[in-house]
């Protein structure tokens, strides 16, 4: 690979005698990782399935390396949202930021959702996750991944952090900033990134990072934690961004990140930060800084949405009686034709560009309720009375995922189609045939 001379000179100065090892890492092949969705199954149950030749990623409890030839994206369990494919180093920010179920979490640069799906799983369905990305196009990919993972308690949105700051002052317990950056740590994985590298880009990213950090400082509650990560080695986007931030925001302290698994210390005075180098770990380049806002404060309560009246939910309630074993509770809200179940303590999102507010259950049209793909992915087989559960070996699984009508005797009406007990999507059964309702854009190709 041809690297720009300014870049190699800079890396030589940064790494000193380690530089030849770093260069040699380009001759090695990259690593492939997957992260288990603990919302859907335990680590123990996942491992019992012995799906691929997996070995653990040391810094992420739910992470594994797999071999490229195994192609886990071509597996029905991938369609069931049992795991997310993620570069192993990219699992580190979500693993290091401590998340407790019930917290309010913001992932401010979230698309396509690698870290949001991780944070969402760690919330275990309790609390609130706001997954935001400034790019509306990229936020669509984020939305799909959040739905695939079956995360019920998230909001997916697309706003610049400055706009969020106006609404969410002191609101969040935890914030992740996986900042836009020059991507130097990804050169081995994505060689095309080398072409867009230049000094102006570094300066542009640094300015963006500063703005994002400032907005997030305002949105964090005193006592809350913020994790800042990049996938670059550039000091100006890492330690310099953090030291400038600490200079400006005296209300923040830098917390130490343990240096195990081959993690290196930060440059200069910011030794508490962590650097991940491809010649020291099995993964690509990353930078991590963990910050805490000093003090403590009462929870900020913001005005929420007013739920719908029961009479306006009639078609859904009928569906629920017919198809579910359980009764869903909480605040139900209709936006346009879509019915949502809102996460607890979700503030009103009026005036903000939102793609999803909570768990999208389906659409209400002409007095009829039609369940959505997100509903299927977020529900458990045990909560549904009308289920068709195929075993992995059954050829109807792939046929269903391809969008075909498949034969299966059973009670007529809406049916949740599963593989080995894990929901894949909906079908409408009539006379022993499952009319396919699998989401069009999700089909097996
Ligand atoms: C490194 S990527 C995020 C990857 C993501 N966290 C994941 O794990 O899948 C950085 C993201 O920041 C977004 N971005 C760039 N500038 C932003 C800004 N000012 N505010 C919010 N997001 C921004 C980009 O669209 C991009 O998707």
Automatic annotation (TrEMBL):
Q: Where is the SAM-dependent MTase RsmB/NOP-type domain?
A: 22-294
Q: Where is the active site?
A: 231 (nucleophile)
Which SUPFAM superfamilies would you find in this protein's record? Answer: S-adenosyl-L-methionine-dependent methyltransferases
GO terms (BP aspect): RNA methylation
Check the record and name the PROSITE patterns matching this protein. NOL1_NOP2_SUN, SAM_MT_RSMB_NOP
Q: Does the keyword Manganese apply?
A: no
Checking CDD domains in the record gives: AdoMet_MTases, RsmF_methylt_CTD1
KW S-adenosyl-L-methionine (keyword) present: yes
> What EC numbers are recorded for this enzyme?
2.1.1.178
Q: Name one Pfam family in it.
A: Methyltr_RsmB-F
Molecular function per GO: RNA binding; RNA methyltransferase activity
EC category name: transferase
Keywords from the UniProt entry: Cytoplasm, Methyltransferase, RNA-binding, S-adenosyl-L-methionine, Transferase
Q: Which InterPro entries match?
A: Methyltr_RsmF_N (IPR031341), MeTrfase_RsmB-F_NOP2_cat (IPR049560), MeTrfase_RsmB-F_NOP2_dom (IPR001678), Nol1_Nop2_Fmu_2 (IPR027391), RCMT (IPR023267), RsmB/NOL1/NOP2-like_CS (IPR018314), RsmF_methylt_CI (IPR031340), SAM-dependent_MTases_sf (IPR029063)
Please report which protein family the annotation says this sequence is part of. Answer: Belongs to the class I-like SAM-binding methyltransferase superfamily. RsmB/NOP family.
Protein name per its UniProtKB record: Ribosomal RNA small subunit methyltransferase F
Q: Organism, per UniProt?
A: Anaerotignum neopropionicum
Gene that specifies this protein: rsmF
